[in-house]
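Students often ask why inverse folding is considered easier than folding. One informal answer: many sequences map to the same fold, so there is more than one right answer. In these notes we will look at a single instance of the problem. The structure comes first.
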C-alpha cells in the first residue's frame, strides 16, 4: 500500500477506476492509502469524504479521497480490492492547504494523518439551519464605530496593519490588563475585512466567547460566527460550511476554531496566548499557537498573540533571548482608564494567630462590606470547585478516595445532604455517616471549594445575592452566558468562581477582587508553577477597577507571602518576573532553552506498566551509550533522562500511569531518539493492554 506523504493530495490528477483512500481509523498500522474501486455513476472529488468498507467484516468507515489510480500495485490482486460505498457530501472537505497542515501536525505531534484530519474536518453533515448560526447571504460589511484609540492602541494597530500588508513574522502584543487589547484586535480585523480577507479569533475559555461575540457582532454584524464544544455537531458543521462557502468572514472560538476552513485567511488573533487550554490533551496533542503560526505560513496570513502575562516561550522569542521562531513585540503599558488596582497580600498565618479561622482575612471582609454598601460588585476567586477538597476520619485518619482513580473524593453540597465526587472519572457516592474503616461517626469535610466560599459569604452577609461559576454550574449549553449576563445586569453583587472568572472578563462595576488561596498552584512540582501562579494572579487582579474613575482593590490571601511570584504579581511587574524566571530556566536548562518529552505508559495492570517502562528506560540508556560510542565520547550527554515515576495522578479510570521525561536542547534529535526507543520497545514487548502516550513540551509535567 502507498505510504502517506505531503504530496498525497494531487489536485491535478484525473479520476481513474481506483480511488486512493485514507481511512478514518487513527491507528499507526493503517496510516497509509488503500485502493478502492469507484462504482459506475459515482464521481468522487479530490479531498471528498466517502464511506468505504474496511477490515475483515467490511464495516463501513469514513475515508478521504487522496487521489486516483489507473491500476493496482503488483502485490494487490484485483479480487481483494473492495468497492467504495457512497459519497458522504457533495463537496470536498479537504483542500491542499488544510491537508498540508494535517501532514505537518502528524509529523509534529507523532500521530496518524487520520487523527489530524479528524481535528480539521467537521464531525457530521448538518441538514438545514440550526439555532445560533448565521443566516445565508453575503457577509455584512464592517460597521471600525466611534471609538477613540489611545496613542498606544493606535501604534499597536498601525504595527499590525503594516505587518499584515507585508506578511512578516508573528506579533506578540504585550498589553497590561485593561489596556484595550480587544479594541486593537477589532481595528486590525476591520482592516482585514475591508481587503476582502477573513479572520479567526481564538479565546482560551468558552466563558469568554459570549462577551467577545457581543463585541465583535456589534462591530461586524452578520460576518461573525462562534463555534465551541457546547454546540451540537450539526451546529458546528453548519458554521464550518458557512466558512468554507464564504458566507461568514470572522470566527470566534476556543482552540479548534483555528481550523476554520477560510479560503482567504488574513489574520489569526490568539487572545490570552499564555493559557494552557490552547494545548489539546487528547490525540493529536497539538498546541493551537503553533498550529496557528503554521496555518498562517501556508495561507500567507498574520498571527497576533495577545496577553498581559505572555508565556516565557513567547516573550523570549520576542525579546531575542532565544533565536528560534522570532516574534515582533508590541507593548501597551497603560490602562485605558489610567488607573491600576491597589493589590494587597494578606498573610493568613497572621490571621490564624489572631484567632481568625474563617476563609476570609479581616481586611477583605471590611472591604467587601464597603463594596456592597456602595452598590458595587466583587469577584472571589478560588481555583477549586465543590464544597470541601477532601473527607477524612478524625479518629483513624482515613481519607475517602476513589477506587477507580488514585485521587481523593471532593465533597459537593446538594439538597439531599451532600455527595462525594471524583473529578477525574466522575464517579460519586453519598456522604457516609460513619468511617468505612473504623466505623467512627467523626468523619468530616476539610478544605474549601467554591461551594464553601459561597456558603460562608451568604452567612457573613445575609441577603447578599451571589452567583457561582464553575464546572458544576455551567454544564448547560448556555451556562456561562447566563451567569455572566446576570452578573453584568447587576442581578448579583458577588461572583464566585474558578479560573473561568480569572481572565478576559470586563465588568465595569467590579471594584473588589479577592483570591482566596493565592498559593494553591505554587506547589504542584512542575517547573512552570511560578509562571502559572504569576499569570493567574495578575490576570484575576486585572478584573478590578476597569471603569473610568474607579480604583480597584485586590487581596491575595496566602500562607506564603514572601514568594517572588506573589510579590511581583502584586506589583504587576511582568518584566521583573520574566527576568527572574528566565534566569532560573536557563540555569536548569528547561524550556525555552530545551525541550522536554513526556513518554507515559498506561494500563490496567500496574506491574506490567512498570515492567514495560523499565524496559524502555533500559533501551534509552543503552541507546545513549551506543550513540556515544559511535561518536567517540564517554557518554552521550545530549539526552537527559529525568526519571521513571508515577504521574501526578497515577491512576485514572482504572488505568495506572507511569512516565519518563527526556530533556534535550534540540527538538529534532529528541524526537528521533524517543521515536526510535519506543519503536524498539514495541519490537521487544507486545505491550498488550498498555497505551503509549507521547507529548512534546507538555503544559504540565503530569
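Output (designed amino acids):
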Amino acid at each position: 500500500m502507498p505510504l502517506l506523504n505531503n504530496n498525497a493530495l494531487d489536485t491535478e490528477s484525473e479520476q481513474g477506476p481506483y480511488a486512493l483512500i485514507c481511512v478514518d481509523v487513527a491507528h499507526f498500522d493503517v496510516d497509509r492509502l488503500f485502493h478502492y474501486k469507484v462504482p459506475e455513476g459515482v464521481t468522487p472529488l479530490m479531498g471528498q469524504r466517502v464511506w468505504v468498507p474496511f477490515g475483515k467484516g467490511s464495516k463501513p468507515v469514513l475515508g478521504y479521497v487522496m487521489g486516483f489510480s489507473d491500476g493496482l500495485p503488483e502485490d494487490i490482486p484485483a479480487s481483494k480490492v473492495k468497492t467504495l460505498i457512497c459519497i458522504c457530501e457533495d463537496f470536498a472537505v479537504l483542500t491542499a492547504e488544510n491537508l498540508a497542515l494535517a501532514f505537518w501536525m502528524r509529523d509534529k505531534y507523532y500521530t496518524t494523518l487520520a487523527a489530524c484530519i479528524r481535528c480539521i474536518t467537521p464531525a457530521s453533515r448538518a441538514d438545514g439551519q440550526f439555532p445560533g448560526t448565521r443566516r445565508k447571504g453575503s457577509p455584512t460589511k464592517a460597521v471600525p464605530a466611534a471609538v477613540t484609540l489611545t496613542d498606544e492602541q493606535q501604534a499597536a494597530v498601525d504595527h499590525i496593519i503594516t505587518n499584515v500588508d507585508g506578511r512578516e513574522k508573528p506579533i506578540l502584543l504585550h498589553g497590561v490588563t485593561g489596556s484595550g487589547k480587544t479594541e486593537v484586535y477589532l481595528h486590525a480585523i476591520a482592516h482585514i475585512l475591508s481587503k476582502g480577507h477573513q479572520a479567526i479569533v481564538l479565546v482560551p475559555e468558552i466563558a469568554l466567547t459570549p462577551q467577545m461575540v457581543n463585541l465583535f457582532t456589534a462591530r461586524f454584524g452578520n460576518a461573525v460566527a462562534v463555534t465551541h464544544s457546547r454546540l451540537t455537531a450539526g451546529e458546528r458543521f453548519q458554521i464550518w460550511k458557512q466558512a468554507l462557502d464564504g458566507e461568514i468572514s470572522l470566527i470566534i472560538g476556543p482552540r479548534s476554531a483555528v481550523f476554520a476552513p477560510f479560503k482567504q485567511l488574513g489574520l489569526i488573533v490568539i487572545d490570552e496566548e499564555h493559557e494552557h487550554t490552547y494545548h489539546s490533551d487528547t490525540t493529536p496533542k497539538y498546541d493551537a499557537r503553533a498550529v496557528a503560526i503554521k496555518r498562517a505560513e501556508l495561507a500567507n496570513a498574520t498571527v497576533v498573540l495577545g496577553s498581559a502575562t505572555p508565556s516565557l516561550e513567547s516573550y523570549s522569542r520576542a525579546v531575542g533571548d532565544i533565536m528560534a521562531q522570532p516574534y515582533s513585540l508590541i507593548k501597551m503599558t497603560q490602562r485605558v482608564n489610567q488607573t491600576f488596582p491597589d493589590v494587597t497580600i494578606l498573610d493568613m498565618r497572621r490571621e490564624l494567630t489572631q484567632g481568625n479561622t474563617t476563609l476570609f482575612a479581616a481586611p477583605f471582609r471590611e472591604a467587601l462590606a464597603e463594596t456592597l454598601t456602595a452598590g458595587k460588585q466583587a469577584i472571589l476567586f478560588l481555583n477549586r470547585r465543590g464544597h470541601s477538597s477532601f473527607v477524612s476520619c478524625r479518629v483513624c485518619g482515613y481519607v475517602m478516595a476513589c477506587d477507580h482513580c488514585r485521587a481523593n473524593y471532593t465533597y459537593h453540597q446538594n439538597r439531599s445532604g451532600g455527595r462525594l465526587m471524583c473529578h477525574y472519572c466522575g464517579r460519586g457516592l453519598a456522604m457516609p455517616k460513619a468511617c468505612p474503616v473504623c466505623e467512627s461517626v467523626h468523619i468530616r469535610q476539610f478544605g474549601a471549594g467554591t461551594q464553601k466560599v459561597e456558603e460562608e459569604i451568604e452567612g457573613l452577609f445575609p441577603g447578599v445575592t451571589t452567583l457561582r461559576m464553575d464546572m458544576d454550574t455551567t454544564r448547560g449549553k448556555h451556562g456561562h452566558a447566563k451567569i455572566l449576563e446576570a452578573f453584568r445586569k447587576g442581578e448579583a453583587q458577588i461572583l464566585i468562581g474558578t479560573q473561568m472568572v480569572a481572565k478576559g472578563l470586563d465588568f465595569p462595576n467590579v471594584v473588589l477582587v479577592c483570591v482566596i488561596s493565592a498559593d494553591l498552584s505554587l506547589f504542584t512540582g512542575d517547573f512552570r508553577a511560578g509562571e502559572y501562579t504569576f499569570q493567574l494572579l495578575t490576570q484575576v487582579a486585572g478584573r478590578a477597577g476597569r471603569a473610568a474613575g474607579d480604583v480597584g482593590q485586590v487581596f491575595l490571601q496566602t500562607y506564603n507571602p514572601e514568594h517572588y511570584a506573589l510579590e511581583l504579581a502584586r506589583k504587576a511587574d511582568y518584566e521583573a518576573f520574566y527576568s527572574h524566571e528566565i534566569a532560573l530556566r536557563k540555569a536548569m536548562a528547561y524550556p525555552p532553552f530545551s525541550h522536554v518529552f513526556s513518554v507515559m505508559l498506561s494500563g490496567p495492570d500496574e506491574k506490567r506498566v512498570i515492567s514495560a517502562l523499565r524496559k524502555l528506560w533500559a533501551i534509552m540508556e543503552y541507546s545513549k551509550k551506543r550513540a556515544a560510542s559511535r561518536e567517540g565520547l564517554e557518554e552521550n550527554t545530549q539526552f537527559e533522562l529525568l526519571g521513571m515515576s508515577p504521574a501526578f495522578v497515577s491512576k485514572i479510570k482504572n488505568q495506572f500511569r507511569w512516565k519518563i521525561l527526556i530533556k534535550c536542547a534540540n527538538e529534532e534529535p529528541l524526537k528521533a531518539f524517543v521515536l526510535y526507543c519506543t519503536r524498539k520497545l514495541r519490537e521487544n514487548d507486545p505491550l498488550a493492554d498498555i497505551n503509549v502516550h507521547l507529548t512534546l513540551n507538555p503544559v504540565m509535567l503530569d
